[in-house]
Amino acid sequence: MKKLFFIGAVILALFLCATCANSSGGGSPAPVPPEFPYTAKMSFINGAFAAWIEGEDGEIITNGDDDDELKPLDYSWYRKEADGSDEEEIFNYGASYYIYDEAYDKDMVIEAVITYKGVECKVQSEKILGTLDNAVVECVDNCDVGDALRSEDLELTSVMSGEDVLDLSDAEVAFADIRYASEDCDDVYYARTVEKAFADDSGDYTMLVTKPGYSSMVYTKYIVVKQTLSDDEVPELSTDIENIKRGCVSFEDAEIMFDYSIVNDEWHPYEAGSEIQIPTGLTKIKVRKSAVGEIFDDGYLEESDPKVIEIFPENIGTDVSKIPPVAKMTFEDYDIVNDDMTVKVGEARGNLYFLASVNNPAYSSSDSLEFEWYLDNKSAELYNGVTAQGGTLAVESVNDIPKGCTIHIEVYARPASANGLFYYIDLTREF
Length: 431
Hints:
about 425 residues; 34 strands
């Protein structure tokens, strides 16, 4: 398949077999004597015209070796206007193929005259699709190694717009099967359409493009084959969270390589058993099957389309090792995402202030959090001379907090967007 790219070395005397050459605009058979059961045919393949002689039974007549008496074909090539005028022989070409030269051949008709058994058989091109530089062939299907890519999944579109651009709306594209007799340029090659090709990897796939009124064109296109991620392959989040850090998720052991993304479609390979830190309030994570190989190397398959996995509270780690024992006993059933909370203490105009903040950029504004203050397990609002407002606890110089005792000050910050989750810190102070 890859030999088709090297047109200079292997620009082939390619031709369409009988099932597609006539119906696909590959050139009209030249008139020959009624008793002469051979016709000349032509197709346009990867920038070259290929001509050949074919019998009634589809037999292909080829040139033999130099010392072979069966070497019967003699070729001449001509260019002329569509009305047949200004015919010009393409000087001393002699080969069974002719490489298209846009400088001389644009809007011209190319004719091959093949002499066989003393009879001249003529065949000429129709208009030329060219090299399809302004067209894109895409395969709209995704598949795994060995699955079938079908011709019906190919899409041929123009990449340019304007009146001078070739209209491809009535053109058809299908996978093509290329066969050849030898690696020498003077041997015969042929192409036939096939319903499907098999996706052994991303790579060069050969297609046959046909358009009414134009010479058919064999076209080689690099198609990226994508993998699929079937429902039974989607990795599952672990529910064994006894040893997972708070605010993290982990996946069960998976048999396939996969990537994950939590924000901004930034993808990372997942290593078995590792933990993924989940931003507070996030409820979904994306996964996809990893790409295989490297681009343009044999065996390359693109990663699959992503699947979305919902994150539930039972998948979030609840490690409570850093929470004081009094809180652990009371709040161990909650999903505590982390303990990144700070309380600063200061004085102003004789009053004592406690300022609580959460070290999470997602909650940089106190409007995003609901704060609750407690002194020795009693709401701060129940003490005279004590005012709790948002993340601030103000203690006036005259208050009824017990003096000379060590008081536990607890503060909770609850994100409104994350039901059941909270930040917590416990301080002690003597008044």
